[in-house]
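dumping the sequnces here before i forget
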Amino acid sequence: SSELTQDPAVSVALGQTVRITCQGDSLRSYYGGWYQQKPGQAPILVIYDKDTRPSGIPDRFSGSSSGNTTSLTIAGAQAEDEADYYCNSRDSSGYRWVFGGGTKLTVL
Amino acid sequence: QMQLVQSGPEVKKPGTSMKVSCKASGFTFSNSAMQWVRQARGQRLEWIGWIVVGSGNTDYAQMFQERVTITRDMSTSTVYMDLSSLRSEDTALYYCAADPQYCSGGSCYVRKFDSWGQGTLVTVSS
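..and the predicted 3d for all of it:
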């Protein structure tokens, strides 16, 4: 079983703000990151090091962290944001990595 | 421009081995780190392991520890992932991903795995 836990599905109305969360003990020690994956496509990194956006990622995507939880917030969700989102961090060993189970985001 | 090009789809028999390649270009291969991730149809991403290209050091997820080997060929800027004792549950799309600046500015640590290959579909079937 995954050491990072995500809600399987979340929905948001178009233009509204949504937060997707990820919990795990290793998040107390290591930064998390987030990948977006659309059907038939490779994952795209949208947040790394807890709250840093790679170039080209819209600023409506932001990341935060508290305790054992890391979060991805999309402010003003767009139709094109509908996708699966995976959190990612080191595992409890610190030498390996792990993905969360993924959250399917639906934009209504 | 950074690019990772993976080898083509494979069909394998149970009990055999597979070897997927990932050829890098557009960045300094020796400064990078590469990871392998797989995804069965409709399932979540699953981390397999990674290699620090310059040192050749590797680490693997526990569930693959006994069956996987990740290597690199510096002369061709290619990383390989070998998985043995294949079973039907290994049927998946296998991705490589690079952190091209793992070693940068005199220090080495994971910055971001932000460059991904196109994926290689491996089907294990009798």
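The interface with chain B takes residues 2, 33, 35, 37, 42-45, 48-49, 52, 54, 86, 88, 95-102 of chain A (CB under 8 Å).
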